[in-house]
Design brief:
The complex is a heterodimer of chains A (253) and B (295).
Chain A (H helix, E strand, L loop, with lengths): L1 H22 L11 H13 L2 H33 L1 H15 L6 H9 L3 H25 L3 H9 L4 H38 L4 H11 L3 H34 L6
Chain B lengths: L14 E3 L10 H5 E14 L2 E14 L3 E5 L6 H9 L6 E6 L2 E2 L7 E4 L11 H11 L4 H14 L15 H14 L4 E5 L7 H18 L2 E6 L2 H7 L2 E5 L6 E7 L10 H32 L1
Parallel strand pairs in B: 4-9, 4-10, 7-8, 8-9
Antiparallel strand pairs in B: 1-11, 2-3, 2-5, 5-6, 10-11
The chains are: A mainly alpha (253), B alpha/beta (295).
Chain lengths: 253, 295
């Protein structure tokens, strides 16, 4: 309760100062719009549905790209964790690829796939795949041997051992990687959309710039922030809560 | 010591010298015994040389027998259990189960680990159901069976709890229920009660003895605690310190249910301990030497 109150107070202070500075008219409104202007832009965007359409398109892209990267990342992480040869050869390469900002893949993607949905999916995938891979590998490596021995002794082998023992046992570790992967995917998507793809939230940002409409730019920024937060809560909040509850981990982060 | 028969051996009072068996050559042993270890050795090689954990173990376990293995730390007790559970293979020698060379890993040999290995992501009941689920038994049946065995260890009220919510003794009982629910041929136990306080251990000894009398499963129980071994076992077998070899065996003929404070039990335990002392000293000495080396 106190925490919520403090947060509320903080936002009131933030918006209040913004309003104050804007009303001093040091900078013209097309450089620094007031909260009211931004709210207006947000309402306009929602009523004429441009924001909704853009959100829908962006969400579809991220669902596909992120979903694919989770699937591939977990499989690749499992391979790296269980195969010594792969770990020694591919493992280091994966780590160095991870240091490459995902938007660097855009030129390559455009040349390969053209200005298509596939290109943006590829950028999103490359943005989050490696984070998921690395955390899966680490998670599996950190599973106490006793769980594997117990699992095998109780009759779990092969894929069932993975599905019923290895995966749940590495979940606490894995979740942080999935979260990080999500954040990377979201960033990659927006930067990718800003640079070339039509429609989507990133494109909406650039459109605001082209029209010199600062209110729209800030409104879309707020929307992107809010969406990121909501998905983070819906997707990971529950998962983290359930892990905390089951494992009895007091402080998860 | 007589080495003519595995299962025989004269009785005198509380304990009797139990021969361990020197060789398995005649087939009748195979038919009579649940489990036979024939010249079993296991060694590990590393860059520092070869470590022989077990050397020439010959042992026969009768169906329904409660067998306790005692030895100092480093005598290869856990290695022995891993071999019998089929989680590891002997370097040489053969393990026979029900008259056949044992397959690896063996389905009917369930091991209760020292660290238990209960799964924190499952509830108590789901833990007990785990092995049944791996066998592909339907949800309803495995639920009923899990409930039966949870009742047996007095944990019915906790079926929906998670592992971290239980006390040490309760976790042990979950592990017992999880193993018994699979209705194993042989139950292998690796110092399961070592980390418990004395009262809880007493209680679990009683429960285990009761469950064993009810189910009459073959139990192979490893411990470093001589009194625990005498408290529980039909037969107590001593292992030597590195490499682990069979030293001697005792039949414990005390009536059940037994009590840890029973003078006859204490007397038997003292005799067994006397035999073991030399090995414990060797283990301690080896540890001191290693200490000095590392300085």
């Amino acid at each position: 309760m106190r925490k919520a109150f403090r947060q509320l107070a903080f936002y009131i202070f933030l918006i209040g100062s913004w309003q104050l500075i804007a009303s001093l008219r040091i900078w013209p409104p097309y450089l620094l719009p007031s909260p009211g202007n931004v709210l207006g832009a947000l309402r306009d965007g929602l009523t004429d549905q441009t924001f909704l359409v853009a959100t829908g398109i962006s969400m579809r892209r991220i669902a596909l790209g992120y979903g694919l990267s989770v699937l591939l990342g977990i499989s690749l992480g499992l391979l790296l964790a269980t195969n010594r040869f792969l770990e020694e050869s591919l493992g280091g390469f994966v780590l160095s690829l991870q240091s490459l900002p995902s938007i660097c893949w855009l030129p390559l993607a455009v040349l390969w796939f053209g200005l298509t949905e596939t290109a943006i999916l590829f950028v999103v995938l490359m943005g989050s795949l490696l984070a998921v891979t690395i955390s899966t590998e680490m998670g599996i490596r950190h599973v106490p041997r006793i769980y594997l021995q117990a699992g095998r002794n109780l009759g779990a082998r092969g894929p069932r051992l993975f599905w019923h023992v290895l995966l749940p046992a590495s979940l606490p570790h894995l979740v942080s990687g999935l979260k990080q992967g999500w954040a990377f995917a979201w960033r990659s998507l927006i930067s990718g959309e800003m640079i070339f793809v039509s429609l989507g939230l990133g494109h909406l940002l650039m459109m605001g710039r082209d029209l010199n409409d600062m209110s729209q730019v800030v409104a879309v920024m707020i929307l992107i922030m809010a969406l990121g937060q909501v998905v983070d809560h819906v997707l990971f909040g529950r998962l983290e809560h359930s892990i905390r509850h089951k494992w009895g981990i007091v402080s998860f982060r | 010591m007589a080495k003519s028969s595995i299962l025989g051996g004269g009785k005198n009072g509380g304990r009797a010298e139990a021969p361990i068996m020197s060789e398995v050559s005649e087939t009748p042993w195979l038919r009579e015994s649940k489990l036979i270890l024939e010249n079993v050795s296991r060694s590990y090689s590393s860059s520092n040389g070869t470590l022989t954990a077990l050397e020439n173990i010959n042992l026969a376990v009768k169906e329904g027998e409660f067998l306790c293995i005692v030895g100092p730390s480093g005598c290869g007790k856990s290695t022995l259990l891993n071999l019998m559970a089929g989680l590891d293979r002997p370097t040489s020698g053969t393990i026979w189960a029900d008259g056949h060379p044992m397959e690896v890993p063996h389905k009917g040999h369930i091991l209760i680990f020292q660290e238990l290995g209960l799964f924190p992501w499952l509830t108590v009941r789901e833990n007990v159901e785990f092995g049944l689920r791996m066998q592909g038994i339907g949800e309803k049946e495995r639920r009923n069976r899990a409930r039966d065995y949870l009742r047996m260890v007095h944990l019915s009220r906790f079926e929906n709890s998670y592992i971290h919510q239980l006390s040490g003794g309760m976790k042990q009982r979950v592990a017992l229920a999880r193993a018994f629910a699979l209705e194993p041929d042989v139950l292998l136990m690796d110092e399961p009660f070592a980390a418990l306080d004395a009262q809880t251990r007493d209680l679990l000894h009683e429960e285990l003895e009761r469950i064993w009398i009810e189910t009459h499963k073959t139990i192979f129980f490893v411990t470093h605690n001589v009194r625990e071994a005498v408290r529980l076992g039909d037969r107590v077998i001593l292992l030597t310190f590195r490499p682990g070899r069979l030293k001697s065996g005792f039949f414990v003929d005390l009536p059940r249910p037994r009590h840890l404070e029973d003078p006859a039990l204490i007397k038997t335990a003292r005799e067994v301990l006397e035999q073991l002392r030399g090995e414990i000293n060797k283990a301690v000495e080896a540890e001191y030497n290693r200490d000095e080396e590392s300085i």
